[in-house]
Specification:
Layout lengths: L1 H17 L4 H15 L2 H30 L7 H7 L2 H4 L4 H10 L14
Amino acid sequence: MRGKLLFLGGLAAGFVLGARAGREKYEELKATALKIKESPTVQEAAGVVQEQATRLYSEGKTKVTDKLANSRFAESDLGQRLMGSSETTTTTPAIERDMLATTGSSSKTTPSGGTSF
């Protein structure tokens, strides 16, 4: 379905750009495209796609944040700055948050408990 819509959009754009029929045909095509864009079915589909995209983005962000919080990257200065937001802190496990809070920024520990240089 998506491929068909992209094909038709490309076909319409090609017609508009390449047509020698004049302003009348252009205005007719423009009106038809506007009518399709404003149709309830298309608006509903756009809403569903937007919702799915938002959900996928949120899930992906959570997964990446969790993986980074449990890696050595979280111990670096850049990791500390990136992980410092309140949204990210809530996804960090409590034990790891306590460990990061007690070690401070001057000494960093590795996941095994040793000091990294």
